[in-house]
Task: inverse folding
């Protein structure tokens, strides 16, 4: 459980699983140079100072982008929900009982995780109560600094091999940066300078083991942030020390832990800002490709990691941790800015619109630990059949203070960071629409004059985006617009006049002298496409624009605990789910019909009742496809699946709106071989010294000898995997 999470799985990930070509919507290679934005020096918002190499875009200070529409609705749910209220009932966040406020007490990652999300939530919503609560935390934390620069829980000075454990400090430093950028608090920069001097004085042992070794990308980002504000050259030495001693993510899945990968893989591209080496950047692409090719062969933008990615466990039923979702999103945002490659923004949108809402209950008051592309029951019962790696229950929606621990404290940065990264500054004094949602941005352009773009759209549920400029005078600056990867015929107009726009993925640039009231209209026509997952048994998924569609399964919410205010829920299916799609091979989309059900509501479009969009499809049930004895959907088998069941019309809804879902569908064909039913499938599970257990897929139980008999003609039965000797078998070559 939480303790297990902290233990690293030693050794490199087994490389037995073949690396295969990505069958994802987007290749795992970089976008063509002409459609990327080239990094350049300059810009209003603390561009990289020499000798650091420049980035393609600059982050605007938090608070410059304000959410509207459904996105504001998500923030409201978060403010009234778990993140906004967590301080009231997570014992880790007890102000009077944490070492982050009273250093003689204990404390680890929970306060930093929560405060990182909550700080930016307070800022992007401007909520006075939340801002006051955040200020109280920082006022207290800032006073804990010691003369050598260390701050927070004293025990963390010696908790990693006798030296400091820097990991929990990294998210807290990110929170402090947001606070400084928003308020201009003059205490923060000297505080961080003193802390980084303390960090730089430590030996390699503080850099090269445990969580921190794998997550130094977060540290590098903060070191560069501070260097751009102070010019202190010791920070460059610290960056070199971090890179030299941290885990080697160079084109290498150095560790199988899903969150470590989601955070860690970007470190080489970040260090490229120091080294100037294109190889470092390429390594980040390579590592992303390795993770997705081996473990990301299903929709949603994540990969199989419950909790580690494991060779042979890449079925869409595997889960991706909620921490993994938000960390991967943050990585993709950072990489958009560093590389100018629009694909990273597409990948962030895929996670934001499809996986993030699905990881939260519809009221925003609970999370679960893992989200799966195929998931037909969310109960609060541990699975003993090794369907998932973790031995604790991970699927029910809970506040989960101790059961889930990291995810409910950490998820809070998802939407606020997404809001902040919708718009970026360009090094030549312009603005870029990097991702799309209803919002408003106010930022400096050209000579430093502030302008406002109002962005009106129902995106991702609609295909038109309208930008209206408010400017005090005529101003010449570039407006950079992302054309999504899935859009091959974008239409862009400025004041009603069409301008050239390339097919996505691309950043395209409109250079002109702008005037107050100018209006830019973007149309990204969405069309339905079918993705085939060749390396997951030829399963298919249905996309339209940035949204992937799942089978609509009727959901029954069973209250299993919690309080009236923060109830805990299991979610069960009350309609069938074992469908395979009936598709015309020559034109797979022919039988798919798209419907607009209603306006995009601000409250929550990511629910079965609230979704503005649906689709209908033709399907047949596959009787052999069942859930196992522990309510976990059986893995896919080769498609098409033989089925003589009648063809039915089924309803699909956006994946983010479905808490139960089938998103990777088998195809069916009455002439094909039927699937084997689950109880006919057995697995050889290697034990030690050439012995195997033989496990049944349906029951999860293993073959054993009745009553542990050693007699002739004793019966062999299935039995719980209790580890006794009568469960171990050897494969003997015929003599
Ligand atoms: Zn987590």
Result:
């Amino acid at each position: 459980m939480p303790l297990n999470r902290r233990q690293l799985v030693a050794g490199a990930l087994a490389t037995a699983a073949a690396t295969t070509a990505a069958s994802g919507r987007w290749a795992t290679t970089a976008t063509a140079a002409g459609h990327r934005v080239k990094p350049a020096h300059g810009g209003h918002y603390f561009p990289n100072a020499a000798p650091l190499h420049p980035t393609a875009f600059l982050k605007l200070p938090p608070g410059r982008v304000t959410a509207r529409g459904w996105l504001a609705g998500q923030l409201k749910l978060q403010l009234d929900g778990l993140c906004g209220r967590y301080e009231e009932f997570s014992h880790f966040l007890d102000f009077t009982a944490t070492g982050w406020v009273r250093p003689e007490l204990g404390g680890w990652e929970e306060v930093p995780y929560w405060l990182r999300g909550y700080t930016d939530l307070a800022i992007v919503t401007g909520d006075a109560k939340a801002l006051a609560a955040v200020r109280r935390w920082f006022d207290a934390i800032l006073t804990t600094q010691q003369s050598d620069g260390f701050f927070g829980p004293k025990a963390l000075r010696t908790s990693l091999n006798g030296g400091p454990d820097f990991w929990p400090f990294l998210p807290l430093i990110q929170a402090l940066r947001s606070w400084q950028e928003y308020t201009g608090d003059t205490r923060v920069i000297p505080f961080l300078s003193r802390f980084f001097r303390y960090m730089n004085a430590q030996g390699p042992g503080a850099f090269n083991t445990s969580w921190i070794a794998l997550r130094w990308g977060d540290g590098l980002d903060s070191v560069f942030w501070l260097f751009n504000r102070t010019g202190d050259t010791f920070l460059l030495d610290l960056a070199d020390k971090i890179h030299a001693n941290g885990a080697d993510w160079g084109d290498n899945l150095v560790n199988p832990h899903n969150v470590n990968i989601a955070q860690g893989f970007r470190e080489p591209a970040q260090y490229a800002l120091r080294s100037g080496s294109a190889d470092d950047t390429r390594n980040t692409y390579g590592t992303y490709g390795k993770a997705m090719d081996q473990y990301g062969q299903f929709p949603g933008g994540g990969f199989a990691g419950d909790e580690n990615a494991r060779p042979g466990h890449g079925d869409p039923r595997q889960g991706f941790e909620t921490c993994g979702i938000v960390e991967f999103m943050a990585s993709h945002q950072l990489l958009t800015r560093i590389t100018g490659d629009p694909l990273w923004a597409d990948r962030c949108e895929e996670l934001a619109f499809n996986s993030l809402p699905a990881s939260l209950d519809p009221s925003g008051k609970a999370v679960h630990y893992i989200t799966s592309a195929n998931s037909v029951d969310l109960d609060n019962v541990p699975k003993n059949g090794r369907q998932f790696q973790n031995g604790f229950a991970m699927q029910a929606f809970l506040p989960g203070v101790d059961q889930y621990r990291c995810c409910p404290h950490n998820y809070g940065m998802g939407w606020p960071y997404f809001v902040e990264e919708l718009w970026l500054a360009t090094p030549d004094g312009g603005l870029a629409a990097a991702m799309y949602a209803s919002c408003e941005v106010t930022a400096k352009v050209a000579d430093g004059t502030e302008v406002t773009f109002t962005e009106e759209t129902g995106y991702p549920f609609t295909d038109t985006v309208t930008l209206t400029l408010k400017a005090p005078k005529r101003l010449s600056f570039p407006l950079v617009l992302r054309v999504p990867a899935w859009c091959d015929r974008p239409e862009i107009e400025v004041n009603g006049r069409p301008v050239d726009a390339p097919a996505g993925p691309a950043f395209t640039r409109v250079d002109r002298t702008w005037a107050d009231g100018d209006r830019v209209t973007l149309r990204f026509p969405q069309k339905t496409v079918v993705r085939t997952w060749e390396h997951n048994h030829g399963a298919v998924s249905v996309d339209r624009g940035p949204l992937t569609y799942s089978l609509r399964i009727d959901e029954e919410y069973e209250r299993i605990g919690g309080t009236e205010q923060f109830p805990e829920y299991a979610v069960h299916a009350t309609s069938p789910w074992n469908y395979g799609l009936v598709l015309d091979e020559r034109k797979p989309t022919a039988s798919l019909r798209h419907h607009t059900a209603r306006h995009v509501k601000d409250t929550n479009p990511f629910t079965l009742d609230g979704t503005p969009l649906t689709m209908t499809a033709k399907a047949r049930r596959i009787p052999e496809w069942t859930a196992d004895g522990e309510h976990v959907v059986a893995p896919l088998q080769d498609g098409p699946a033989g089925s003589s069941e009648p063809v039915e019309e089924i309803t699909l809804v956006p994946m983010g709106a479905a808490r139960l879902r089938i998103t990777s569908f088998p195809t069916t064909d009455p002439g094909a071989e039927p699937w084997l039913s689950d109880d006919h499938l057995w697995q050889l599970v290697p034990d030690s010294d050439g012995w195997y257990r033989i496990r049944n897929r349906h029951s999860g139980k293993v073959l054993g000898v009745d009553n542990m008999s050693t007699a002739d003609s004793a019966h062999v039965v299935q039995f719980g995997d209790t580890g006794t000797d009568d469960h171990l078998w050897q494969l003997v070559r015929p003599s």
The longest strand covers residues 449-457. Residues 681-730 form one domain.
